[in-house]
């Protein structure tokens, strides 16, 4: 323990904002706060720079810490999302899962030809947006399980939204803050429901294999 390097935690959006010197203090600032935006850094200078919006580093966030925060979110459903792309068209799919069973699902071909320049990412974005809209209609909270990191990072501000589509996505997700959290899953890893929505998105495009 004596050789453990110190960490500094910057919280841009949480119950309290600022730079903290321990995970426990940081956790108090973000625990139970939906859409909290925070990162860990090896130095105070990097943490302060990121907090001020000056850093372009992609410092790592402790996966264990993020998973702990996501698991504490009181979600009514786990919602698996995915996108697909072929021949200039993209598609999206989501599935609301509870107690090992799909309760709601939807998929379709994307309606914005210009967005197709982002290939399957356009479908990933559309899936998350349709999922939070459905959750809002149902009056429930959801945990979005996604396999593309940008789905969470654009919404939380971890990644800067640099084009009109990611900017529109971030803006829309901000309107639904409080009803969702994120959890990343590994693609094509044998996860039953991740594979399920992957097949749904492909099927919408006529891909059968």
From TrEMBL:
Cofactor(s), by name: Mg(2+)
Q: Sorted alphabetically, which InterPro entries does this protein's record hold?
A: Ribosomal_bL9/RNase_H1_N (IPR009027), RNase_H (IPR050092), RNase_H1_N (IPR011320), RNase_H1_N_sf (IPR037056), RNaseH-like_sf (IPR012337), RNaseH_domain (IPR002156), RNaseH_sf (IPR036397)
Pfam families according to UniProt? Cauli_VI, RNase_H
Which reactions fall under this protein's catalytic activity? Endonucleolytic cleavage to 5'-phosphomonoester
- Domain RNase H type-1 span(s) in chain numbering: 73-206
The processes (GO biological process) annotated in the record are:
DNA replication, removal of RNA primer
Query: Which keywords appear in this protein's UniProt record, sorted alphabetically?
Result: Endonuclease, Hydrolase, Magnesium, Metal-binding, Nuclease
Q: What is its EC number?
A: 3.1.26.4
Gene Ontology molecular function: metal ion binding; nucleic acid binding; RNA-DNA hybrid ribonuclease activity
Q: Which family does it belong to?
A: Belongs to the RNase H family.
Q: Which PANTHER family match?
A: RIBONUCLEASE H1
Q: What does this protein do?
A: Endonuclease that specifically degrades the RNA of RNA-DNA hybrids.
Q: What is this protein called?
A: Ribonuclease H
Species per Swiss-Prot/TrEMBL record: Desulfitobacterium dichloroeliminans (strain LMG P-21439 / DCA1)
